[in-house]
Design brief:
- The chain is α+β, with helices and mostly antiparallel strands and 196 residues long.
- It folds into two domains: 33 residues; 154 residues, Glutaredoxin.
- Helix content is 39%, strand content 14%.
- The chain is built from five helices and six strands, in the order H-E-E-E-H-E-H-H-E-E-H.
- A hairpin with a 6-residue loop joins strand 1 and strand 2.
- The chain is globular, with a radius of gyration of 21 Å.
Length: 196
């Protein structure tokens, strides 16, 4: 090769190397900035497309297992109200339908999505139906398996809530008996939202 040919390849080669380094750097930054608890993709309820939970990094997150035919199903209304009230301050509610307790979520993902939308106007993110109880064994939703490890607590019924702080590692557990509009629950959410 002559000097001209070498020079003509040098600039594109430098650009390609720089682009590769930038991509590696971005991937490394993403891995470092997304807590392990959130570093996963799960399928959205409405269209079953993968959604990265890393998009909620830095937010206060309420994770709740839901069911359409439960005595606590009306909590959907209060969860949506909580989400609407605080989402601009950094709150997100993530719903996980499950048929684990009393077979109270027998429908398909499409039926669940339609029910949540038409009955309670749910706009907070929902994910496909999954197993959340310890009886699920290896079939347990991996997020729920990790939430159990962090808190030592597992859902015993529908509408069990986990609250993940902005750091993505601090997690608290609340039974289905704690309603989303419970005064102490709302105060805790406000305190977590105020923390930076």
């Amino acid at each position: 090769m002559d000097a001209f040919t070498i020079r003509s390849f040098a600039a594109p080669l430098r650009s390609a190397i720089a682009a590769a380094l930038l991509i590696c750097s971005a991937a490394s930054t993403h891995a470092a900035s997304c807590p392990a608890l959130l570093d996963r993709s799960l399928l959205r309820l409405q269209d079953e497309k993968p959604q990265s939970l890393c998009q909620y990094n830095g937010k206060v997150i309420v994770v709740v297992n839901t069911a359409s035919h439960c005595g606590f199903t009306s909590q959907y209304k209060d969860l949506e109200a909580l989400y609407a009230r605080y989402r601009d301050r950094g709150l997100v509610v993530l719903g996980f339908p499950s048929n684990d307790f009393g077979s109270q979520e027998p429908g398909s993902n499409q039926e669940i999505a339609a029910f949540c939308s038409s009955t309670f106007g749910v706009k907070f993110p929902m994910f496909t139906k999954s197993r959340v109880s310890t009886s699920a064994g290896a079939d347990i939703n991996p997020l729920y398996a990790d939430l159990r490890k962090v808190t030592g607590s597992t859902p015993r019924w529908n509408f069990h809530k986990y609250v993940i702080a902005r750091d993505g590692t601090t997690v608290e557990s609340y039974s289905a008996l704690t309603a989303p509009d419970d005064k102490s629950f709302v105060e805790r959410i406000e305190k977590l939202l105020a923390a930076r």
